[in-house]
Amino acid sequence: MAEATGDLRHDTATPGQPAGAAHLGEVRPEHPAPTVLEVLRSLGGGPRGLTEEQAGERAALLGENRGPARREASWPRLFVRGLRDPFTAVLACLGLVSAAVLAWGTASVILLLVLVSCALRASGEYRADRSTAALRELVAATATVVRRADDEAAPSAREIPVADLVPGDVIRLGPGDLVPADVRLLRTAGLTVHQAALTGESEPVAKTADDLAHPAHGGVFAQPWLCFQGSSVATGSATAVVTATGAHTRFAQAHDRTALPRTKSAFDRSVHGISWILIRFMLLTPPLVLMANAALRGRGLETLPFAVAVAVGLTPEMLPVLVTLCLARGAAALAGAHGVIVKRLPALHDMGAVDVLCLDKTGTLTEDRPVADRALGPDGRDDPGVLRWAAVNAWWTLQLGDLPQPDALDEAILEAADEEELTAYDGVATVPFAPDRRLSVAVVRTPGRLGTHTLVVKGDVSAVLERCALADDERERILALAARQAEGGARVLAVATAERSAAGRTYTAGDARGLAFRGVITLRDALAPTAADALRILADRRVAVRILTGDHPGTAVRTCLDLGVPVTEDAVLTAEDIDRLDDTALAGAVGRTTLFARCTPEHKARVTEALRSAGHTVGFLGDGVNDLPALRAADVGIAPRGAADVARDAADVVLAEKDLAAVAHAVDAGRHAGGTLVRYLRVTLSSNLGNVLAMLCAGLLLPFLPMLPAQVLLQNLCFDAAQLAFAHDRPRPRVPDRPTVLDPGNLLRFITGFGVLNAVADLATFGVLALALHGPGRGTGDGEAVFHSGWFTENLLTQAAVMVMLGVGRRSAVSRRPGPVAWAATALGAVGLVLPVSPLGPALGLTALPAVSYPLLGLVLVLYAAGLRAAGNRFARRHDGEGAAPGGESGAGPV
Question: Would you call 729 a catalytic residue per the annotation?
Fold first, then answer.
């Protein structure tokens, strides 16, 4: 609790402005709830309000009470941010190096690819990054404030702009008012507020000004004596004192957290790991080429263009463009088919990599409404009469109480009751529910009982039992019955009646005395209609669900069991359990825990971070300001369209509805996109590495360059153009059943093995060309042209074979009509065969091959394809547990 200091600067614990994250009136584990008097004293004010002079001094010192400012990243800024990607930066450097050695064609192509990639990424993220303007709509324009002209004047209430509010101001709130700042309640009358913008809860929350101790497990938003900017009054009225304004409100601080840098997601970590592998190869290759040629062949700097061309040949130049196109196409298809918006393109890959999904119970697994479950008499047996009396109370409370909207519990009871039975009773009067009484009273005329009125009382079990004529042992037995139902996850209401004379009188809550106890009504959360099926789909996709809720553990366990989610006794942790664990112990516990109950926002973020530190890729589905820390901590944050605006800002993926089925669709789309990236990386890197190894060997074995720099670059350009087909490939008919993760270590092992196989095929080609060139002309200029042409043709043919066998997949190639990748591979092979004999061949240093070369090259190609198949089968067997089939049939698991 902040103490009075007499200093209102923001950087100290000042009246109305918190030090750090502390707010006046918050419950801390080590402190009791501050009283109204303590809060007023710390603010330097009183219940009569501030004087105009005091308010002016504080406004001058603290500034205006302004809401969160609109923040938008400009398109140029997003473009420059794309250049910070390590692989894009490497390509840019290679382009500059190519320009330095006067390889203008190479430099132009590489730099064009960099610009296109950054432009595509910036455009996609710019369109998805403009949703903060609606924040201003959640902040009130005016407020009713109580102030005095001077110390001697009487207080008076008047409307002032919200911007003029200062800490210590006393304000009044009524139905429909937006709460203009963070406040501590002084007096309330039946006050309930909507906090959906802060917590995601759809139901109004009861608030009271009392100083009684309340459990702190629900976090700051659950404390009943506090209201926050961004919430609105549903019913009742209140007088409150302002405790925080401007940038120090919870709403503004939550918005500021969305601007903090995020931890690296799964995609970022993977791309950085892969990029550094390639960077090491590219930095190592040119010096090796130069030193080897200088030492063995006496060639010096004249081989520099060839060395640069070899480094470029190792580089998958199309990677930034293809990643952006692939993810953008997947995101567009997901938005069109299921209304799911991917705000940050790499988040689509992260959805496919998610193996743990964290979510709240309310609104996701359950609908935001309860349903009646059982009606039990005092003996614990089913009694339909209890439901009838509860429905009579609900009906006439609604009809006579002039309520703005029916209570959710009353609606559930009325839906379960027989409407014809209700029409037999005539309503006389009602005393609606109030948070301090915790019960409602309906007075009705019972059929056949002239001159008598029946009081029907419904509400909290303890509150109703206090008004019943029961022996102590009977009261204890009923309390135990209610407790057993609550432990099973049900909400429990008690029902009692009493007979009163119908002689003209006015009924009050005090008339509810000496009641006859009728029984209890149990209610449970209505299950979301698609939740059970979506959970089964996620389980089939091997996505584990972790439920993080502020509810009672029994309520959450009941929901899980109703949905078929097994929850063992040791798979539940409460907030108290989490607090007792350090980070290391929590990282070990989260793997075996399904349900985390009584969670505050800090607990949700801790659990999310613990799951990530345990090696999981984590998605978090949240919709309130209290979910912001966890949304930022997760690899991919998910929010529904109806979430608080700051939650949508922080999220990477926005759902049309808060529906787990939409999350399952996003996971599928992410895995399809991730599978495409997997296939592309395997094909291009293994082929490029094989070519580089072969070039290094050839440079040492041959008295001439194995391929001219222009031929190397032309070959790369043809291969890169063919690889664009991956971005347009059709999704696999089978959805991957495992998360798709770009694992740099596994990728390195894959490309090393298949790259060596490719290099062996190239070396075999050297032998074939040596046989073909044996005789006149060997070692002459014509011989060099034939060698260059033969290797050029063989390279494109082997790359086409790799695209088909590793990119399309053997079973897919047989069972489906040719797709874009298969057609691109065919075109690539055709270019390799036709270009040397075309009129363009001589200009590129290429020539027709001897007739004997073609069957020999065909034999090399067949043997290479057989080797690819054998290596693919071996790789699939070794990595079957990871689901990483090289041909893409499974398409899941680590790369």
Answer: no
